[in-house]
From TrEMBL:
The lineage of its organism: Eukaryota, Fungi, Dikarya, Basidiomycota, Agaricomycotina. Keywords: CBS domain, Repeat. PROSITE patterns: CBS. One of its GO terms (molecular function) is protein serine/threonine phosphatase inhibitor activity. It holds the Pfam family CBS. This is CBS domain-containing protein. InterPro entries: AMPK_gamma/SDS23_families (IPR050511), CBS_dom (IPR000644), CBS_dom_sf (IPR046342).
C-alpha cells in the first residue's frame, strides 16, 4: 500500500482507569433488554426489494430514487430473499469495473463470481444477484419473530449492519429490516429512561477503552491529493465503508469519504473524470457544516475526542447519520502533535459501541471486525499476485463507463436529473458498454 493511501497506526496512552459497568446495574439492564422484541424496532413494514435478474444499474437507480441504503434481492424460483445490495456493493462493483484490466487470470479463476460479472458486463447486462454482497460487508442475516434486543446485539457485534425480522409463524414472510443504527437509537432512548445506564454512557471514550471500541486501532486513510478512484479501491481492499482524508503535509484530518458518497455522487456523475478528481475537491462537494450545536465547531462534525462522552458520541453518530466517527487529539490540551502523525488517534463506530453493550450482556464471540478481516484477507490474497508497479500504472488509465439518462430526485452535483446517470453495465446500445471502456 502506498505511503499516501495507508492504514494509520497511531496510538494514544492508555487510560489509567478503565470504567466497567456495575454488575448490579448491568443485570437489570440485561433483564430489560431481554423483554424487548426485535420486531418492535422495525420502523416500516416495507422491505424494498428487487428481482434477482434486475440489472445492477436499475438496482442502483432504486437506491437513489427511493433514497434508501439497502435493497433485498428476491429469488424468482423460490420467491425468497437471497441477499442484500447496498452502496458498499456499488463501490465494489465500480472498483472492479475500473480495475478489471489489471486483474491477473489466476484471480479470476480463484473468484468465479468476478469472472461471471466480467462475462455478464461484456454481454451488456449484469444482474444484481451477482453483485449482492460483492463487498463482503452486506450478508443476509435473519432473526425469528420472537427475537429480542440481545439477539440483535449478537448479530451486530459481528460486524453485520442489517437484519431481516421474520413474521409470526407459520408465515414465511418478513416483517421488515432492523439496522444497527436503529438499535443504537433504541439504546440511547433506553438510557434517557434509565439513569444508571445514562451514567455509564456518560463516561469518556478514553475511560471505556475496551477492545470492542477500537478507539486506538489503525485508521484507514488517504491523503487529500489522491483520487476518488484511489479511495474507492482502498475501501474495497480494506473492507471498510469509509476512509479518512488527511492533509498532505501534516496528516491532520480534513474529512471522510464513504461508500454512500460514492453511490450518491459518483454514480449520477455525467463524466467518468470524477474518478480522477482529487479528494480535496471531491469532499467539497459532499461535506457541508452539520452537527454543530453552536455554529462554531472548530473540528469536522464526523470527529470526537478521546475525552468525549460516549453519550455525546452516540448522539453525534445519530445526528450526522454517520456510521463511524474519527477520534482526534484535542490540541488544546494535548501537546506534541507531529507532522507525521497528524491529529488522528483512532476511530469509533456504531458496531464498536454495540459490541461494548454486547459484552455487557455477556454475549459470546463478540468480534466487530470479523467481516472486515475476512474482506481484508480476501483482498490481500488478490493483491499478492500483483506488483506495485502494475497498481501504480493503473491509476491513470482505470475508467468506468458513464452515460447520461433520466433520474428522479435532485442531483447532488447540481446538474439536472435528466442528465445525470451512470451506466454501470452498458444497457443502452447507443453508448459505450462497460467492457468496451475497460482496457483489454
Amino acid at each position: 500500500m502506498s505511503a499516501q493511501n495507508k492504514r494509520l497506526s497511531m496510538r494514544s496512552e492508555s487510560p489509567l482507569v478503565v470504567v466497567t459497568a456495575p454488575s448490579i446495574d448491568s443485570e437489570e439492564w440485561i433483564k430489560s433488554w431481554k423483554e424487548v422484541n426485535a420486531r418492535d424496532l422495525v420502523v416500516s413494514p416495507s422491505i424494498f426489494s428487487v428481482d434477482e435478474e434486475t440489472s445492477v444499474e436499475e438496482a442502483c437507480d432504486a437506491l437513489l430514487s427511493e433514497n434508501i441504503l439497502c435493497l433485498a434481492v428476491k429469488s424468482r424460483s423460490s420467491d425468497s430473499y437471497t441477499g442484500l445490495f447496498d452502496f458498499s456493493d456499488v463501490n465494489a462493483f465500480l472498483t472492479l469495473a475500473a480495475t478489471r484490466h489489471i486483474l491477473p487470470p489466476e484471480e479470476l479463476r480463484e473468484k468465479p463470481r468476478v469472472d461471471q460479472i466480467v462475462a455478464a458486463a461484456k454481454a451488456g447486462r449484469v444482474p444484481v444477484h451477482l453483485v449482492s454482497n460483492l463487498s463482503e460487508k452486506n450478508p443476509l442475516e435473519t432473526l425469528p419473530w420472537d427475537a429480542n434486543i440481545l439477539s440483535l446485539l449478537a448479530v451486530f457485534s459481528g460486524g453485520t449492519h442489517r437484519v431481516l425480522i421474520q413474521e409470526s409463524p407459520p408465515s414465511a414472510n418478513y416483517l421488515g429490516i432492523v439496522s444497527d443504527r436503529q438499535l443504537l437509537s433504541w439504546f440511547f432512548s433506553y438510557a434517557e429512561k434509565t439513569p444508571s445506564f445514562m451514567q455509564f454512557i456518560s463516561n469518556s471514550l478514553h475511560s471505556l477503552s475496551l477492545p470492542s471500541l477500537n478507539i486506538y486501532s489503525a485508521v484507514v486513510a488517504s491523503t487529500s491529493s489522491r483520487s476518488v478512484l484511489d479511495a474507492m479501491k482502498l475501501m474495497s481492499e480494506e473492507g471498510v465503508s469509509s476512509v479518512a482524508v488527511v492533509e498532505e503535509e501534516t496528516g491532520s484530518l480534513l474529512s471522510a469519504v464513504s461508500v454512500t458518497d460514492i453511490g450518491k455522487i459518483v454514480v449520477p456523475s455525467q463524466s467518468n473524470q470524477i474518478l480522477s478528481t482529487p479528494l480535496n475537491q471531491f469532499i467539497s462537494q459532499i461535506k457541508e457544516p452539520d452537527g454543530s450545536t453552536d455554529g462554531a465547531d472548530k473540528y469536522p462534525v464526523y470527529s470526537v475526542f478521546p475525552t468525549s462522552m460516549l453519550s455525546y458520541t452516540i448522539q453525534k453518530l445519530l445526528a450526522t447519520n454517520a456510521h463511524r466517527l474519527f477520534v482526534i487529539k484535542d490540541t488544546s490540551i494535548t501537546l506534541g502533535s507531529t507532522a507525521t502523525s497528524g491529529n488522528l488517534s483512532g476511530i469509533v463506530s456504531i458496531v464498536d459501541i454495540l459490541s461494548l453493550f454486547a459484552r455487557i450482556a455477556q454475549i459470546r464471540d463478540v468480534d466487530p471486525t470479523r467481516n472486515q478481516r475476512h474482506r481484508r484477507a480476501s483482498s490481500a490474497s488478490s493483491q499478492s499476485s500483483r506488483s506495485d508497479r502494475d497498481l501504480a500504472g493503473s491509476r491513470s488509465s482505470s475508467r468506468t463507463s458513464l452515460r447520461p439518462s433520466s433520474m428522479s430526485g435532485n442531483s447532488p452535483s447540481g446538474q439536472s436529473p435528466e442528465n445525470t446517470r451512470t451506466s454501470m453495465s452498458g444497457l443502452d446500445p447507443s453508448c459505450y458498454q462497460w467492457a468496451e471502456r475497460v482496457p483489454k
